[in-house]
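Page 47, continued from p. 46.
Same chain as before, 115 aa.
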Amino acid sequence: QVQLVESGGGLVQPGGSLRLSCAASGDISSIYAMGWYRQAPGKQRELVAAITSIGTTNYADSVKGRFTISSYNNKNTISLQMNSLKPEDTAVYYCNANQRVFTYWGQGTQVTVSS
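Result:
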C-alpha cells in the first residue's frame, strides 16, 4: 500500500505561480513512476506531468515550458512548479504513483486561476 498526501493548491491570478507537493509513504520502494493529473469540471482526467524513478520526465503539450515536475527527499516526494498559470489550468490536481500492479491516487487539491 502507498499513501499520497498532496499540498499546495489554491487561488491564483492569471500569470501567477503555484507549487504543488505530494509525499508518498508506505511501500514506496517499488514505485517506478509518479505524476500529476488534473480534472476540470465536465472533462476527463488528464496527465499533466510524470517522472520516473530514474528521472525521466513527460509533460502534456499544454503545460510544456510552464510547469516543472521534480522529485526529491529520496524520491518519495514530488513537486509540480506551475508558472504562467492560465484560467484553463483550473482543475483538481491529483498525485499519482505507479507500481507494477497497482496505481495509487491522492485525494486531490484544487487549483483555481482567476482574476
